[in-house]
Amino acid sequence: MNEDSVSTTLQPAYILHYTLWRESSFIVDAFTLSHGRISLMAKSARASKARTRALYQPFRPLLLSWVGGSELRTLTGIEESGAPLSLADTELACGYYFNELVLRLLGKDQPQPAVFAHYAVALANLATVDTVQPGDLQAVLRTFELQLLDGLSVLPDLARCTADGSAIDANRMYRYHPANAIAVASNRLAEGQLSLGIQKQKTRMGDADHRDPSVQADGVTPDEGVMVSGRTLLALSSLTLDDAQVLEEARILMRRILRVHLGDRPLKSRELFDTLVRRD
User: pTM of whole model > 0.70?
Assistant: First the structure.
């Protein structure tokens, strides 16, 4: 069968992003239940009726139909499958953050039904989060980050992320090295001197040990790590995110873990979030 003739109908989906194309069309990046992330050409969408044009928005549960199976499919139908979610200010920025994570981390045409379900729940939670309790919003963010990485099979076992696989002790402090996904039991007073001493010696010798968690796999680039309590690592592992101190440590740690997979290119949604914070 010709790939361009393949027809798919009424698939649950969300629009992640769209761009204008020529005089009357959109190119749509969508996250679908059955096909994962795909790109669609919405021909003459900007010339359609106002009610239909209004469907081309993020955070709205949709049913999409299309033809083709190549890099750019052709959209043939768009219907609402639920009420649009009402997100504003900080929650809106968080929604765009979720979309950017999906766009940056999910490859095209890789079905991720579990991640799709987590994404839908995360958006619904954003729409109902208690803005008076900042921890509630942080818990929604950290939960989806963890679920996304787990769905992509790149989330380490944070309950046993020691070098020998032994269990994390809730009562100890660790230095977690994101590039190597290893937590090293740490003494706050001696840790800085010890890490610097190891790194200087290895740089001087030019013979970095790849098993050393303070050095990345290239044997040269340092992985300085981030201090985190065993309690926070265990809370992240079990998705028990209801403690203010745990959430603060988790915010810093997850940003470092995500950077391993996202690279150094900044997230546009984070810039939006920072703008909203400054405005407030």
Answer: yes
